[in-house]
Amino acid sequence: MNSVMKGAGYILVHTPDMIMHNGTTQTTERIVNPDSDYLKQIKSHLRPYDRVCAYYPNQTYIGNITPFELAKVEGPWQDLEAPTDDRYGLFGEIMPQDEFYLLIQAADEFELVYLDKDFVAGTLPKLAEDPIITEYILKRIREGVDQERLKKMVEEEGAEGLYKDDHLVGAVRRAHDIDPNLSAHVMIENLVSKASSVLALLYAVKNAGISPEDVEYTIDCSEEACGDMNQRGGGNFGKATAEIAGLTHSTGSDVRGFCAAPAHAVMVAASLVKAGTFKTVAVTAGGSTAKLGMNGKDHVKKGLPILEDCLGGFAVIISENDGKNPEINVENVGWHAVGTGSSPQNVIASLVTQPLAKAGLKVTDIDYYSPEMQNPDITKPAGAGNVPEANMKMIGALAVKEGDLERRDLAAFVEKHGLPGFAPTQGHIPSGVPLMGHARESMLKGEVNRVMIVGKGSLFLGRITNLFDGVSFIMEPNKGESAASSVSSDEIRKLIAESLRDFASGLLESR
Amino acid sequence: MDLENQKRIKDLTEEHNPEDIVVLLGAAEGEASGIAAETVTNGDPTFAGPLTGVSLGLNVYHVCEEEVKADYDPEVYEEQVSMMEMVLDIDEIAEEMKAIREEFSKYSA
Amino acid sequence: MSILNGKKVIIIGDRDGIPGPAIALCAESAGAEVIFSATECFV
After folding, report:
1. pLDDT tens digit sequence for B22-78
2. In chain B, which residues have their Cβ closer than 8 Å to the Cβ of C2?
3. Which bin fits A342, alpha (ψ -120 to 50), beta or left (φ > 0)?
4. Which among A384, A427, A460 has CB closest to C16?
5. Predicted local distance difference test score (pLDDT) of residue A483
6. Is A122 a domain residue?
7. Among candidates A343, A390, A466 on the partner chain, residue whose Cβ is nearest the Cβ of C16
8. d(CA A4, CA B78)
């Protein structure tokens, strides 16, 4: 029996100051071209929080607008106003930067994060109003230190600053004097990833209607690595995140694979549950500070706001079959193998047409595909095109080549089975998984039948292999069986034995 | 273009005769093709990498352009690239590439 | 006249277009020597 997807959390964190201080495009520019026009122009291209909330793709990501509705709104969306600008959505929220800095401190176990006293006093009441934030998290936030102390940390001790409207309000210190794996730069990236993952995980648990103690295993699938000089990728963001989210019965581990990691992680989670190893597994990932403003130069050059101004996080809860929630079909997964090669047709065949053939399905039997769901407002001006649309064209073009689709029907196929991209370009965050929350909702309403989640990853960026990677799986409505209603043969034998005993004792009594 | 790739290209043009080098691109659309082509001919237009202000003038094509397509083993092209002709806007890419070659390439035929 | 035969080829592929290794196979089939191949990623 397949496992099911019980709920999801999708969160964004608006981090305008982190674009300049932590995004690699900007930090590189500050080294290479410290006086560049681009650096001078950034500030005037930042969006205020209310514009970020009123942005169609962001409202789609947190669940207030469906991708089916978004498909009807012609982009680019950056100048439009979404019908809602709510901070909170069906799946999560858009957290402002100041509150998130407090959450970073809550995620810190080693007194590395220091915040300004006045800043904490002014921001803590705001964070406390967020209904998802637990007492446990609030209690972890310390009173704060004075400005002088923060300045000294940043200017003399190599700490990374946390800024609000260019004012220093916090610092993340290095965790070791000489180990580059514990530098302030690495620690801020890892703590941001952890903190945003915690937020997504809290929403996933709540939305799944389970209690935190129900989760037995937590898999992190972000793109960061934690460890020290003796074990650089030592890991277990998964368990560390579960700790702050209060999942006291959970252990965990990390799954890595660049952008493909979330699809790998959901596949692993669904298999662990199906195998009976664990009853409930959480898959979670936080955001990447490095990718903030990644394509900012192109956006500024074209007079656009810097659209990569949010961290993204996501989490899903995979549980044993409850007879109700959508199933993760792990019997017909697709995977890019070592021998698949890198040609686009082989990649798509391995991820889409081959698993479909195994399942006895045609490309048109999948209602919607969720390949890489990057927001085209971000990628088109940067010269990367419309990524989800290009992926859909590839799927359609392969179907044409394989004779399953007429060439003249290619455009209609893309239109009918594809959806617009609405996820931030946070690497792993847009890859396949953004549709899972919406897919679950529409499957529960009986509106959508089958969805294919396709994760792809550029392994070659790590310079350890030249290979590409990807996995895919199908989500489908529940077939109506549940783990609770089905009984094993052992249980049946036990039941028969019991009733025979009752029958025999009944016979004796009636004598 | 990635800064490390720019550095490698610069080094390779010092190691080999630039006239003997052809750059092949696989970019997904016209503008990106144009920027990469400009980088290896006139210099990095984004002023970020080692090729900023370096006019290598290399001969450069997109892998799908007719001029170079004629050179490949048709079976290899069919297996490796052909499907993408249904996905990419080849005309737009070819137009960008031709314009850059005509303006900046020192070695194109 | 062949553009690629006998030439040294530098490849800048794109993970959302045509990746480097696929271009390399085409270039080699044209009698070129691949001296560098990379695949870029914008996302």
Report:
1. 999 999 999 999 999 999 999 999 888 899 999 999 999 999 999 999 999 999 999
2. 71
3. alpha
4. A384
5. 72
6. no
7. A390
8. 40
